[in-house]
Amino acid sequence: MNTLPLEGRLAMVTGGCRNFGAEIAHALREAGARVIITSRHYETAAEAALDKYIPMELDLNSEDSVVALFERVKKEYRRLDILVNNAGGHSRSACGYLEKESLAGWNDFISANLTGTFLMIREYAKLMMNQGPGSIINIASMAGLVGRDRKIYQPDMTPNPIAYSSAKAGVIGLTTDCAAYLGPYGIRVNAISPGGFERNQPEHFIRDYAELTMLKKMGQPGELGGVVVFLASDASNYITGHNLVVDGGFTRYK
Questions:
Q1: Rounded-to-integer distance, Cα 229 and Cα 117, Å
Q2: 160 pLDDT higher than 90
Q3: Beta pairing partners, 243
Q4: pLDDT (0 to 100) of residue 148
Q5: All residues at 6 or more sequence positions from 203 whose CB lies less than 8 Å from its CB, including other chains
Q6: How far is residue 204 from each of residues 137, 152, 154, 169, 223, measured CA to CA in Å?
Q7: Which residue out of 53, 124, 164, 209 is catalytically annotated?
Q8: Would residue 5 count as lying in a domain?
Q9: 169-205 pLDDT, tens per residue?
Q10: Is 60 within the bounds of a domain?
């Protein structure tokens, strides 16, 4: 258990103000790390940070914004021990139906969910390749591993578009090759692919989805943060290039 604490380490969680990001930031802080949280708007990050976290502004669709973020980190902290690429994005241009999908919707999803992750890893590498060790954790999705049975999405729900699945599959591939590239520098790169988690979806969807898992339930709040702490800590020192699926057995059932 002595390998789990993160005292003295600096972590960053992109999109750390809500949902998975807020849970991850809380878990890292509870493990002893100082935690930077980012949002597209600084005011949003500052409001969520209170006196617990360090707020910073980040727009993953802007290369200049990513570069500026790491310039600030280098100037103020000189290193970043843990990077959690959690933030993604949705698009008003994306509709969820292949035959109606627009190129603009596709590009929006790829930019925020895949290209943004690439930019973050690139700038992290510039900062940490000569300092190591470090840990990068990319939040992917089981949508990058399996297709979806759209029968469980009744008319009151629209599944994520195919661009989302494609981007998350790309994040998994990006993780693997960046792990190979950065391994000699002592930087580990892993991914986590969550399954479905309860977020106020309709009761019929929660019920139908739960039946498709081995554990007969959707993911619950608090069931992801500990996984991130494990991959960020010395307990996982010999793990890199791995995609850890947190889905209640969904992708291995039936």
A1: 19
A2: no
A3: 191
A4: 80
A5: none
A6: 33, 9, 9, 28, 22
A7: 164
A8: no
A9: 999 999 999 999 999 999 999 999 999 999 989 999 9
A10: yes
Query: What is the rounded radius of gyration, in angstroms, for the C-alpha atoms of the chain?
Result: 18
Residue 135 lies in a domain: yes
Task: Decide: pTM greater than 0.90.
Answer: yes
Q: How many CB atoms lie within 10 A of CB 253?
A: 13
Q: Tell me, what DSSP letter sits at residue 8?
A: T
pLDDT level of residue 42 (50, 70, 90 thresholds): very high
pLDDT on residue 151 = 77
- What is the number of structural domains in the chain? 1
Q: How many CB atoms lie within 10 A of CB 233?
A: 20
Q: Is 164 a catalytic residue?
A: yes
For residue 81, the domain's CATH number is 3.40.50.720
Could you tell me if residue 2 is inside a domain? Answer: no
Strand partners, 38: 56
**Could you tell me the residue range of the domain that residue 248 belongs to?**
10-252
Which CA distances in Å does 219 have to 124, 206, 248? 30, 10, 7
Q: pLDDT digit string (tens) for 114-150?
A: 999 999 999 999 999 999 899 999 999 999 999 887 7
Strand spans (E) along the chain: 10-13, 34-39, 54-57, 82-85, 134-139, 187-194, 243-246
